[in-house]
Design goal:
The complex is a heterodimer of chains A (about 800) and B (about 350).
Chain A lengths: L1 E3 H4 L10 H11 L2 E7 L5 E14 L2 E10 L4 E6 L9 E11 L3 E2 L3 E3 L2 E3 L2 E2 L22 E2 L9 H4 L5 E6 L10 H12 L12 E5 L5 E4 L7 E8 L8 H9 L7 H13 L3 E5 H4 L3 E6 L5 E3 L5 E3 L5 E4 L4 E4 L3 E2 L12 E7 L2 H10 L5 H8 L6 H15 L3 E4 L2 E4 L6 E5 L1 H8 L5 H10 L3 E5 L2 E6 L9 H12 L20 H15 L3 E2 L5 E2 L1 H4 L22 E2 L4 H12 L6 E11 L7 E11 L1 E5 L4 E4 L2 H15 L4 E4 L5 E11 L2 E9 L1 H6 L5 E7 H4 L18 E10 L4 H12 L3 E10 L8 E10 L8 H17 L3 E2 L2
Parallel strand pairs in A: 13-24, 14-17, 29-32
Antiparallel strand pairs in A: 1-12, 2-12, 3-4, 3-6, 4-5, 6-7, 6-10, 6-11, 8-9, 15-23, 15-24, 15-25, 16-23, 17-20, 18-19, 20-21, 21-22, 26-28, 27-28, 30-31, 32-33, 33-39, 34-35, 36-37, 37-38, 38-39, 40-42, 40-43, 41-42
Helix pairs in contact in A: 5-6, 6-10, 8-9, 12-13, 14-17, 20-21
Chain B lengths: L1 H17 L3 H12 L4 H7 L9 H37 L18 H14 L4 E2 L5 E3 H4 L24 E3 L4 H11 L4 E10 L11 E12 L3 H16 L5 E8 L2 E10 L16 E10 L1 H6 L7 E8 L1 H9 L6 H4 L2 H4 L8
Parallel strand pairs in B: 1-4
Antiparallel strand pairs in B: 2-3, 4-5, 5-9, 6-7, 7-8, 8-9
Helix pairs in contact in B: 1-4, 2-4, 5-10
The structure holds zinc ion.
């Protein structure tokens, strides 16, 4: 909502506060002022000029040489506007003038001809192009003939004004009008509000003699007022009216349309004007549209209607989409002489539905949706009639044609002063409360230690005691509220075990050298299931904004890999990212099964200590080590089992398992996937945290530091390449008995000295007895069992 | 023989003095004190002496041997130290060369902000509650006093999956769920999480962002308690000399509703580009829980009251670190992420 302070002053005394100060007061007490716009900012030395003559520039087709009377002197000014003509009153920026954006006007020569200033368009005065009347949109603005030559344009045409831009919250529909803002400012400054005085002369003929009215759906349209005005001359509105509309962000059209918009801005009540003759039938019938009924609205679009839409008809066909937009078939034009002014109350739900269905928002619909003041419907119609008779030369027919079943009593809210103070934690005096309610012009009675408040219908948002508390507190001043802390029993607070473990995972991974990434949950249908561990149906949005963000992800990896590519494309060759976040799987009920995962993607060098000749590229085992360490950190034994997945290297992929369940995947990207993603060797991992955290590892148990030494024996085996070290390790462990404490691979050789298809793996076995020092014989006995078992299984011992 | 002995001693001592390194000195030791050395020879030759001269001569040889040994050892200590010093000298390294890098990662700036806020409220006795990102219309809107057709639903255009299921537009449904689960008991929680709105991504908008909200319900919770709590938060999060101010606002789920500004942490209130010359920075929205919300979750709104507040970690991080574009949080440029490594303690 844009509020011209000059206009506002017609209704309330603003005590001549500087605009910024007024804005600050409004902000602090309830309605945020987003901007204070000085309409004259940067403008100086702009006067009314009269174009005495206008000739073509001999050297330039598009320029005209004008002799312009600027009050006392006649100056030659070169003008390039297509609509410049002799006999016009125009806006002249004289030499020395400034225009918005810091432009300075100087005497100049244009193609050899002297120019003493500039004839201005409204845009050049800083008015947005979309607000400039269409007739002047492409050229200079032409002032009315009575404009006084040489006078200051700024003061004569209300540009010496400041506009407050209000950021209205949906509850404050009351402030979507100048009168509503006047009430708010009146309450803040403790000033009275002056309503417009409405007087005009009526014709003898009655409106009802020309127009009949029928309301078919009173539940959606409980009040409809129509006035008939004839003898109208449709033309440009007077300057003051045009300026007020432009200051309010409305483009002037013609006097009739401008008056309906003016009253809309003034009262917050939408009005519509029909050309009476184009209405054809002298009848207005309000009903629900028939299925597939058609109407062409004023914006030129033909719309197919539905039963939900309320329409204004002439008894036969729709002439307006009620409360949203008029129809083109009864539009006021320059030939119009008789009009019907509509002021009505439409139920907000109905308007909201129609507006949404046709994706059509207007100043009218946005007000109806939030609810208009039922007590302003009739005054607004009268106000329009008055202005039509004053400005458009109209003759207003006597009375109105009216349908009225609208209840509009004031709501009563009762609240006790103690309740108010206890909820605020304050001690506001009773008299102060009364004073504030008075300033708001809420009628208040005190009964049995209760305030009985009649809430004016313009404040539809005030419904319960808490609403009154807010009104009193905001006008009393939030700065006056003391600072206390809740006097509730103190609670320990803290993280749940799950949340704690998530933090442990994060700090472990960061300690391991990974950067935390955050990516989007919405992705394309195509990548939603890539790398997903469980396959479920896709979850698509009903109305996605783009295909790229249409579907909920089932794996973190696609977006994480995009982030890796983003970095490598910017010459960060080594990237190691992790992310924790939800994947979205179809669940048992209508809600999804949101499972939290952790994913890692890494490429490039893991260790780069070049000057010492130490370099390590990321590989499967770098990431596997990180995953193993994570298991250790959580006290969980994770296993790895050869696996496969589309997009991963078939020989370098493993499932991560816990108690035999697959809870994750780890692998190297398939070369073709790397190519598609423009990546070099990239290792990825994704693991379900939800599954990982199911396990309760319980309290940590200490075992005594060994008092006896352990003994190590090594075994080197020649194996077929397809035999996995893990299998052998398990075999060794099972054969080693109680004394075998640890088995580690310490060497792997796959080279020329071996038979083709063979590899050599060396294990280091640690024997230990917590009770005593082991003898050589005991170790040898245990070790020989292992050796025997290995030989039995066909392994070849390397000497 | 005595003269021979003295000559030998003088000669040995000179050689000891002349030795410049451990090796030379060791040679001297072998030459004079070794089994084949002249002193040993002298001792061996004593058998030829008359018996009465033997003790005297033996003592004399011992004195010489001891003196030579003592001098030699003294010299040896010096030469050994000299040798070590020479070795160390040769081992000198260029200590300005870089150390072997330790790979470190760090948390995302949003995690950093969220955890800081979580920890701050945990220390005040709050628990952390989380909830689903795909939510029922009921918890996201209706239970929060936003019935179907409510004008305030426009404030947050949503991503629907079906008529009744949508991506949550705020973390408030976690509050509604917690209230329902607590069945009328007091509550003190903080709820962080991802939320989604129909916005085109640009420098200041993101269709996905994070929120963190707080909720306290108990007997006689007052608006002054809200102000006090927010004031503690502002000081801990943004510095002890921060002041707060409340401005009236509107949220359907609170009444009264406020927005909280803090005095600018950059200029201290004088006016600068961070606070847009106002001296104040808008940080969060808050209010007293609307009685409809309490009643809908089964609370007796006459007996128990509460306050709620909510803020955007993106906004806080952008203000705090001067980040100019919200999209940085989701592109994961390493050059961006790795800037948030060090502590601010
Ligand atoms: Zn500042």
């Amino acid at each position: 909502m844009l509020v011209s302070i000059k206009w506002l002053k017609e209704y309330v005394n603003t005590q001549d506060l500087p605009p910024a100060e007024l804005g600050e007061k409004i902000t602090r007490s309830g309605i945020e002022v987003d901007a204070v716009i000085d309409r004259s900012e940067g403008l100086s030395n702009i006067v009314v000029g009269y174009v005495e003559s206008c000739e073509k520039h001999p050297e330039a087709d598009k320029l005209a040489i004008c002799q312009v009377n600027v009050g006392g002197t006649v100056d030659q000014i070169i003008c390039g506007a297509p609509n410049i003509a002799a006999g016009q009153h125009v806006i002249v920026a004289r030499p020395g003038a400034t225009l918005p954006g810091g432009m300075k006007i100087k005497k100049a020569k244009l193609r050899g001809e002297e120019s003493n200033g500039m004839i201005c368009s409204l845009q050049e005065l800083g008015i947005e192009g979309k607000l400039v009347p269409k007739a002047y949109a492409e050229g200079i603005y032409v002032l009315p003939e009575n404009a006084e030559v040489g006078s200051d344009v700024l003061t004569n045409f209300d540009l010496d004004d400041t506009v407050l831009e209000l950021g209205l919250t949906p509850n404050r529909a009351d402030a979507m009008s100048m009168l509503g803002v006047a009430y708010e400012v009146g309450a803040i400054l403790e000033e009275e509000v002056k309503l417009p005085e409405i007087t005009y002369k009526e014709a003898e003929d009655k409106a009802s003699s020309m127009l009949t009215l029928h309301i078919d759906s009173p539940e959606d349209n409980p009040l409809y007022v129509a006035k008939v005005v004839r003898g109208i001359e449709v033309k440009e509105s007077p300057m003051w009216l045009q300026q007020r509309l432009m200051a309010s962000g409305v483009r002037p059209h013609n006097n009739v349309v401008d008056i309906t918009n003016y009253v809309l801005m003034e009262y917050g009540q939408p009005l519509h004007a029909f050309d009476y003759d184009l209405l054809e039938t002298g009848n207005i019938t309000v009903r629900h549209a028939k299925t597939d009924e058609l109407i062409t609205t004023l914006d030129g679009n033909e719309r197919k209607l539905s039963l939900n839409n309320l329409v204004i008809t002439n008894g036969k066909k729709p002439v307006a989409l009620a409360g949203v937009m008029g129809g083109a078939n009864a539009e006021v034009s320059k030939d119009t002489t008789t009009i019907v002014i509509e002021s009505a109350y439409f139920a907000s739900g109905s308007i909201r539905q129609t507006s949404k269905e046709h994706n059509l928002r207007s100043d009218a619909s946005s007000r109806y949706e939030k609810g208009v003041d039922p007590n302003r419907v009739i005054p607004a119609a009268e106000r329009a009639a008055q202005l039509l008779s004053e400005i458009a030369g109209g003759e207003v027919l006597a009375g109105s044609v009216i349908f009225d079943q609208l209840k509009r009593e004031e709501r009563i809210v009762k609240v006790s002063p103690d309740f108010i103070n206890s909820r605020l934690g304050m001690k506001i005096r009773f008299d102060d409360m009364l004073g504030i309610l008075n300033r708001l012009q809420f009628k208040t009675e005190a009964m049995n230690n209760q305030l009985v408040i009649s809430v004016p219908t313009r404040r539809q948002d005030i419904q319960i005691e808490e609403d009154i508390i807010e009104e009193i507190a905001r006008l009393y001043g939030y700065d006056e509220i003391p600072s206390t802390l809740p006097e509730t029993a103190t609670t320990p607070g803290g993280l749940s075990p799950y949340q704690l473990k998530r933090r442990i995972v994060r700090s472990y991974l960061e300690g391991a050298g990974l950067l935390q990434a955050t990516t989007y949950s919405l992705t394309s249908e195509k990548s939603a299931t890539q790398f997903a561990m469980k396959h479920t149906e896709l979850t698509r949005l009903l109305m996605p904004m783009s295909e790229e963000r249409s579907t909920l992800r089932q794996s973190l990896l696609p977006h994480l890999l995009e982030s890796v590519t983003y970095n490598t494309a910017r010459r960060t060759d080594s990237v190691a990212l992790y992310e924790t976040g939800s994947v979205f799987l179809k669940g048992h009920d209508e809600l999804l099964n949101e499972e939290e995962h952790v994913a890692v993607a890494m490429t490039g060098l893991w260790l780069d200590n070049s000057w010492q000749g130490e370099k390590k590229a990321v590989d499967f085992f770098v990431l596997k080590g990180i995953v193993e360490g994570l298991g250790d950190k959580l006290g969980i034994a994770l296993d790895f089992e050869r696996g496969e997945m589309d997009g991963l290297h078939p020989g370098r992929t493993a499932y991560i398992t816990l108690d035999g369940h697959r809870i994750g995947i780890i692998g190297q990207l398939h070369p073709s996937e790397q190519k598609v993603r423009d990546l070099k060797t990239t290792i990825v991992m994704e693991l379900s945290l939800a599954e990982l955290f199911k396990e309760h590892t319980g309290p940590l148990k200490y075992t005594q530091v060994p008092r006896y030494p352990s003994i190590t024996r090594d075994i080197a085996l020649v194996l077929s390449k397809i035999v996995e070290a893990g299998t052998i390790e398990k075999l060794i462990r099972s054969a080693g008995g109680k004394l075998l404490k640890d088995v580690r691979v310490f060497d792997l050789y796959e080279g020329d000295n071996l038979e083709a298809g063979k590899k050599s793996v060396a294990f280091s076995l640690t024997y230990f007895d917590p009770e005593k020092t082991l003898t050589d014989e005991e170790v040898t006995a245990a070790h020989e069992k292992v050796v025997a078992r290995l030989k039995d299984s066909g392994a070849e011992l390397r000497s | 023989m005595e003269a021979q002995l003295n000559e030998l001693k003088t000669e040995a001592l000179e050689k000891i003095k002349a030795a410049t390194n451990v090796k030379e000195l060791t040679a001297v030791r072998v030459a004079y004190l070794g089994k084949k050395g002249p002193i040993t020879d002298l001792l061996k030759g004593m058998g030829k002496l008359p018996a009465e001269e033997r003790p005297k001569m033996g003592a004399l040889v011992n004195v010489v041997r001891e003196e030579v040994t003592a001098q030699l050892e003294e010299r040896m200590v010096i030469l050994e130290e000299q040798a070590i010093n020479e070795k160390l000298q040769s081992e000198t390294i260029d200590i300005t060369l870089p150390g072997r890098p330790v790979k470190t990662g760090n948390a995302h700036p949003l995690t950093r902000v969220v955890e800081e806020i979580e920890d701050l409220f945990i220390s005040m006795g709050y628990e952390v509650e989380e909830g689903p990102e795909v939510e029922k219309d009921y918890y996201n809107f209706e239970a929060l006093n936003l019935p179907k057709g409510h004008p305030a639903r426009d404030m947050q255009d949503s991503f629907y999956i079906s008529e009744d299921i949508l991506l949550r537009t705020h973390t408030s449904p976690v509050q509604a769920r917690t209230m329902e689960a607590k069945g009328g008991e007091p509550i003190k929680i903080i709820c962080p999480g991802k939320v989604y709105r129909r916005d085109n991504d640009d420098a200041t908008h993101s269709h996905q962002f994070t929120q963190i909200e707080g909720l306290v319900i108990g007997e006689d919770i007052r608006m002054s308690d809200l102000k006090g709590t927010l004031s503690v938060f502002a000081k801990k999060m943004f510095g002890d000399d921060r002041e707060i101010r409340l401005r009236p606002s509107f949220f359907p789920f609170t009444e009264p509703s406020v927005e909280m500004d803090i005095s600018c942490f950059k200029c201290g209130g004088e006016g600068c580009n961070v606070c847009k010359k106002t001296g104040w920075i808008e940080i969060l929205g808050a209010g007293m829980v609307h009685p409809n919300v309490l009643e809908m979750a089964g609370y007796d709104s006459k007996r128990l009251t509460g306050f709620a507040f909510g803020m955007g970690p993106e906004r806080i991080a952008m203000l705090k670190y001067g980040i100019e574009d919200i999209r940085h949080f989701y592109t994961n440029d390493v050059r961006f992420l790795s800037q948030f490594e060090r502590t601010e303690v």
